Amino acid sequence: NDFILKCLNGKHFHSLLVGATGTGKTVAVQSAIVGLDEATWTSLTINMSAMTSSGKTQEIIESKIEKRIKNKFGPPGNRRMLTFVDDLNMPRKDQFGS
C-alpha cells in the first residue's frame, strides 16, 4: 500500500483507498503524509462522521487555503496540498459499531 501510494503521489495522481475496516488504509495515508517534503507539500486531514455537514467541510477546507487571483484558491506558499478525507462514505454501522 505504502509503495503504491507514494508512486501515485509522486506522479501527482489522485488516489482513493478502499477496503474493509481495519485493513490499514488510514495508517498508509498517514505514513505517506509524514514522508512529504514540507518545502513543497502541505496536508489537510478531514475526519468525516455522521455529524459532518457540507458547510463544516467547506469551512475546514477554506481555513487551509488562500485566495490567489480572482476566483483561484490554493495552499499557502505556492505548495501542493495532499488532502486526506477519512471515512468518506459511512452508509451503515459495521460489526464494531463505528
Description:
With 98 residues, the chain is α+β, with helices and mostly antiparallel strands. The protein has three helices and four strands. The strands form two sheets. It has a two-stranded parallel sheet.
List the defining traits of the structure above.
alpha+beta; two-stranded parallel sheet; 98 residues; flat
What is this structure's SSE topology?
Blueprint: H1 2-10, H2 25-34, E1 41-47, H3 54-64, E2 66-69, E3 72-74, E4 80-86
Parallel strand pairs: 1-4
Antiparallel strand pairs: 2-3
Poorly predicted runs are: none
Question: Which sequence of SSEs, written as H and E, runs from N to C?
Answer: HHEHEEE
Distance between the termini: 23 Å
Can you give the helix content as a percent range?
25-40%
Provide the spatial order of strands within the biggest beta sheet. 1-4
Q: Roughly what fraction of the amino acids lie in strands?
A: 15-25%
Taking all residues together, what is the mean pLDDT?
85
Cα-atom radius of gyration = 15 Å
**General shape:** flat
How many helical elements?
Answer: 3
Number of DSSP-assigned strands:
4
Quickly give the structural class: alpha+beta
Largest sheet: 2 strands, parallel
